[in-house]
## 1
Amino acid sequence: MTTYHVVPGDTIIVDPAPVVPPPPPPPPPTAVTTVFPAGAQRFTVAPTATTAKPVAIQGYIWDGVMLKLGQLVTFSAPSSASADAYLDITGSSINGRYCRVTTGVWAGQLLSASVATFATDPLAPVTPPPPPPPGNPPADLQAAINATPSGGTLDATGGVYRGTFTINKPMTLKGGKISAPGNVQQLLVINAKNVTIDGTEIDGTGNTETFCYGVTLNSADGSVVKNCYIHDIIYCGVMVFGTAGGAVSSNHIARIGVGQANDTNAYGIAFTNNGGAGCSGMTADSNLIEDVPTWQGINTHSGINLTFSNNTVRRTRRAYWLAASSGYTISGCQVTNNRAESPLPVTYDPTAFFIASSTGCTFTGNFISNDYAHTGSEFHDGVRDYGNASTGLVVTGTTFG
């Protein structure tokens, strides 16, 4: 120990005690996120719960209209205080009761859930794929189409256009985006043979015309629609009238007839007649068709020797439908290696594969979700032959899951 002699006038300095910092605040609680695929899973909250629980839903809450970011969906409260409130993704219901919901939810969005209210989180939108690199798009698409020589190629990559556009000669249109200006019936119309549409986006958002078509083929023999994104169309993504040969392939067709003017029927792809010839020798291959809640994914009313192969249809009331209009026939069609995945929560006649009064048609190696009806006197390995009225129908290799 050291001793110091202190006299008046000396200064004494005392080392202060070290300052102990306060403990760091506890980390915020980790948000609980549960991912449900579209199907029969339920998100359950006790009726007395007061805190929100984030939920990411793959699929959407359905009653015909998609939910935009920031909108609310409110359900009826449970009728019994002792019962849990839940969202049934297959039925959009509380405690099993069907609710008239005026909005839906995009796949993958983050929802904040309380007992009876669900809201989108605008901080968690679905990230779209990056757009293709811009080319040198024309300012006036219709003028550029008219100026393209027969058999030539018009590259509209990076261009954005509003209106109805018509092609009356053999040519190729690549890229570009065509959107609806308002009340129009058709967005892209093909009136010539041997036309190719490659990688074009067709956007019907905001259109109010009940019978709007995204892409229309009128007697367009040998034409091809491929690699396109066709979405938010009220009536039909691709409508094919009286065309022989050609293909609709590798397209993404989404949200057809979803909560817009036409809520009774809609088609992803339809092959039909123009009052004269039906469709023949065409192929629908490797398309993804989703969210056609009121009607059919791929349809033909007058198909001869059509091929439907390697397509996936999901969240659609009736996935594949082959039934002739009066005066027409369905014959020689091949339906191979397609998938009919979970339908939307419909209560009437959800059907994966349907055929009626056909001749010589074959279904091979297709997949059917167990959510679709697929047993009964009219079903043959999951394919429904209406009235068992087809002749020469062959169905093999169907799988279920």
## 2
Amino acid sequence: MNNLVIQNQQSTMSSTQLAEMLGFDTKSSINKAIRKVFDDSRLESYSEKDARGYVIEYHLPELESKMFVAKHDIQYLEEITQYWINKDKQQLPDFNNPAVAARAWLMKLRQSWPRRKNLNLQPLKLRLLIASLSQLAINHLDRLQSY
């Protein structure tokens, strides 16, 4: 999508460029496919018309271009979907940095410690102990990182 045209201070992609990318045979077939995806009121500002008022070219902005390509190219749609699935996965800490690794370990310990049943402490005392130990360790790690 590096063949973008600037129209009205907005990057657009022409229906001819989309036809070449997606393998449409004729300009009328790509224009018909575009009209099936988007309603006329949305396309009015993106259309280039001849003297008779017939649309000869559409100039779709980035969002509409990507939506159209995603509808007609399953591989592109898969790439976009996979991107958002991977983006939503939790990022792992940098375990090469000892302070970051220790902080991650403490946070995990803080989450799992209340679920341990073999400790004979009352729940409130246990929570206070975990919170104070964790906070002390995090403060110490912050000081180490700042050196």
## 3
Amino acid sequence: MSNTPSFKSLGLSPASLLAIERKGFLSPTPIQVKIIPLLLKGTSDIIGISSTGSGKTASFALPILEKMVKHPNHPRALVVVPTRELAKQVALEIASLKGDGEKEILTLYGGTAIGPQIKKIQKGVDFVVGTPGRLIDLIERGALSLTHLQYVVLDEADEMLKMGFLEDIEKILRVVPKERKTLLISATMPPAIQSLSKAYMNKRIIVDMGGEKAKELPPPNIEQSYIVVKSPDRSRALLNLLSQHFNAYTIIFCKTKRLVENTLEILLGEGYRAAAIHGDVPQMRRERVLKSFREQKIQVLVATDVAARGIDIAHLDLVINHSLPQDDDTYVHRIGRTGRAGRLGKAISLITRSEKKRIKYLDQATKGRLFEDFLPNKKELERAEAHRMMESIEKLSPEGMEKKYEAVAHLLLKKFSPIDAVTRLLFRQFEKKKKMDLFSGSEEKEKNREKNRKKNKKKDRKRDFRKNHRR
């Protein structure tokens, strides 16, 4: 008999268990096993030391949603996070766990108009997720009252302190009720976090899941490999990997914005449902791209490290490093986008022979979890293509098939064996498509390349003009 705890054994209500079942969670993660019963009991404040991707959001959201008592005019729970990206992700996760409950969840962050946020607060909200700067702004305007809070959560507290938010956090903690329950989550426990917890928390219990060590190590459920390629062959290698993992929802990490755009151009030219985010992509467009990726309308996302910071996509299957990042922490952050909340994940890095010495250091940093792999061979690619064909055929609806094809099918089966008939049809369909793609696609690709060349020339001329003008 298994000793693994179940969500039911943690004391959660039937409504919460139903929400968990809808999410597809099978068993609680270690931090959920520790924190959920403590928050349900509600006798102490909690410091949770844990890395990202550990299931920490559900560990506090589920018990808070259960224990929170609605107020007609005031929010009852507050989660403070370092970035707007994280605010949106945490709010989405909380919303997905509330089940059929009528609790209103609101995100508050800067970089967007404050007026609509004030109107939403006035309509009534139960659960607020926000960044320190915008929260302070709303408090000082008198638009947000935190006087009736039951719960305060400081998520990624060490990151907030690194970003210089200590003063803002203290301002927020000074205006919340003394009787509230506080949960502080951090990957590390530096002196500043210890001082903050002593000043603003009561009867503290420390739940240490090895956050600092876990921050250096990727989750064990991520299979990590590297493939040695020649630098000019990276794009072809990338396409072969995507063909092999044709069903995988994938993030491709690139070092530069230009490389992101070039990679996106190649993927779109090959017919992939792909999009890109980097520092030059406007915030509104970035949000639309991430929303489409979460909703699985986009299969491949190409991104730089800065733009992808804090991305949390539950269904992400594969991370591909187009090239290795500069440091170990960035590598761990990149591959940590997959394998979230106990799911299996895969990470593949494309490297050149000269980068192989970096692998030794990454191998040490990840405790020997990296192994060398190879690009799929012709047979493996053909097998993947066969599976892809099979899936596309299975998705065809019989209602949409015209009767005239049935007559052709009968004629074919009179002349050929079933295997021979199907083989000939597949060859005719897919080989014909390849030829069409070869001619129409190459023309389209050349147009796109020419467009990009002109765009880059224009940028270069502007840069040269500015340089000369400064002189």
## 4
Amino acid sequence: MSSEKRMRCEVMTITPEMARRWIKATGDRNFRKPDLNKVSVIAKDIVEGRWQLNGESIGLDGEIVRNGFHRLCACVLAGLPIESVVVHGIPEEANDSIDRGKARTLAQWLAFYKVPGAKHCSTVTRNWHAYREGQWKWQSFAKPSQGILIEFFREHEKRILNAVRLTSRVSPGGLKPTQIIPLSLLGALACEGSYEYFKLSSHCETVQAYLEQLSCGESLTEGSPVIHLRNRMLGDRQGSSHLSPAMRRCLAVYAWNLLVQGESTNLLRYRLTGPAAQVFPAIQQATI
């Protein structure tokens, strides 16, 4: 009998006990070491109610897991049942053809939902969410599920679209602000720093001033925090200095905060490491 004829499919409610039993039965037959970060992300979706029956299947050969090992581990970690399509009777030789597809990116999901500037919106969404999770002090970010990021975008869609629109502009005779600081960072900073403004309007004077000063450095006074930020960032891009990802974010926030406070400085410096390390700065709100 062919493998196709032996297979059968059903929708099941999978309890943590069932998932644990199947994982134990699989033992070392699971050829990939589980990605604990991926398991944690899926478990968080389950606990917070984002798990959906979406047609993706758990593949079994008896009680041996052929597909969906991470989802079952997440079910156990979450301690809650999940509803899923389960395909029974998947033979061992099918392992070579499972999980070859490439997952959709956040930008592809936003484009599917007809979001203008989906690629830029996705990078701003990811970076702003990372800020809200306290990750800007890290050199790289954890990877939340697409469901978490899509939900975050939907909650803050107007602000993110405004930020992308503002940070993509060019001042006459100047550089694009995104030629100095990545749009993902600028957009997230604009979203958080003008949070109250964007409740009421698509325009924020402080964001506009920050972007214009980045774009046209010639008009800035020597004490402007943005001229020092501009010089540091341009030097970093031209290779005369090297800033870590966390330090780039830190200096962008520090210069923004000084601008919001109306303060000048002769030196833009912040310590993130060493015995004199400072706490990573929180983005201050522009006043309305």
